[in-house]
Amino acid sequence: HPDSLSHIERSRKFEPLSMRGMPPIVWEKADDIYVFDKYGNRWLDWSSGVLVTNCGHGAPEVRQAMIDQINSGLIHNYVFPSEERPELAEAIANVSPDPLKKVFLLSSGSEATECAIKLSRANGIKVGGREKIGIIGFDRGYHGRTLASQQAGGMAGQKTWIVNLDPAIINVPFPDGYWENDSSFDGFLKAIEKSGMKPSQIAGVIMESYQGVGPDFAPVEYIQKLRAWCTENDVVLTFDEVQSGFGRTGKFWAFEYYGVVPDLICCGKGISSSMPLSAVIGSAKIMDQFPPGSMTSTHSGNPVCCAAALASLKKIVDEDLTVNAARLGPILEEGCRAVQRKYPDLIGNVTAAGYVAGIQTIKRGTKQPDHDLAHRVIELCYQKGLLLFAPVGAWGQTVKICPPLTMGKEALEEGIAVMHEAFDQAVA
Ligand code: PMP
């Protein structure tokens, strides 16, 4: 809407360039599966912000819990004991497998993964000496924007500013079976050998249980071998569930697809469906390595964020939102596959699980990513009232779809029809 231009201009003037790139809607309000501007426009939301609003935008239960907490007057308490922080820690422990029953609350996903890397190294040094500090991440992985988390991530193009890369943080191929042909666990072992590090020098492996850029799972057999290898070599295995946790993939945790349990879970985003909150979840052995006062953060477990998270988790569980994503996910997947069948030489790969799907565009008949096509499709969807965030992927080739888990069949199908129209127009 033309009247929104002044707000966009102001953003351009006072916010860094890096904050641009999304469809130019000035959000005014949001309600469950819809986002509105103040000029009477409404969009069906296929972004969930950025995979945050798992229980819908502005869920009444979440808002009320926050209001009650605010009205109590307690809106900050640092590490001083309070009721809601341990209550949330217990609630998260209850949805986590044994022996992962200690929960450290932080504010962002990046802080959680940074903390997991630190815990892995501390454990490595303890069990294997000063050389056991290697951290392994995966190509095209994403763990956040703090120093170690970004180094462990595998977005090569985003690491150009890291001049003296920590030599003990390396990336190995992600076995997605599309961009990477070798999906065998031997590929992992070979990459470590090539790095010059011995398994005895590795402290941790960090991996998204469902890699966000595709999005994509690794083969089950690969992960089972990885789990065994980590155990044999005293390596802390972290699954980054910042995107995939809290029901997104049709299981509460995406790692449930593999039938293994990691040593650490990092989560964030959908943990509260709203407020900045994240968590590292692990066993007492790994989590209790630092003495009182030495693993904290000013806003760790902020009471309002905890209240929001407790209400969001309750809604996800009580309303079976994970089950909703699992039940309707196949409709979303089929909607994406139908586009691929129509344009097989323009769509390289389609992946989906629960309420997250990705369509990876390619230049006609090649295996070259096509950012422009993905961008055009998203732009057309936006013009037609369907909101997606800007293309993701290592080359910006992915149209990624992640509705709130509350979205019903009718709205989902409406979105699919709009997406089909957008593809038809974008390729015409
Ligand atoms: N890990 C994954 C898998 C993520 O998707 C993200 C955020 N996109 C992060 C970590 C970082 O989280 P945050 O942006 O809250 O720091």
UniProtKB/TrEMBL annotation:
Its cofactor is pyridoxal 5'-phosphate. The keyword Cytoplasm does not apply. Pfam families: Aminotran_3. Coiled coil: none annotated. SUPFAM superfamilies: PLP-dependent transferases (SSF53383). This is Aspartate aminotransferase family protein. Keywords: Aminotransferase, Pyridoxal phosphate, Transferase. Belongs to the class-III pyridoxal-phosphate-dependent aminotransferase family. One of its GO terms (molecular function) is identical protein binding. InterPro entries: Aminotrans_3, Class-III_PLP-dep_AT, PyrdxlP-dep_Trfase, PyrdxlP-dep_Trfase_major, PyrdxlP-dep_Trfase_small.
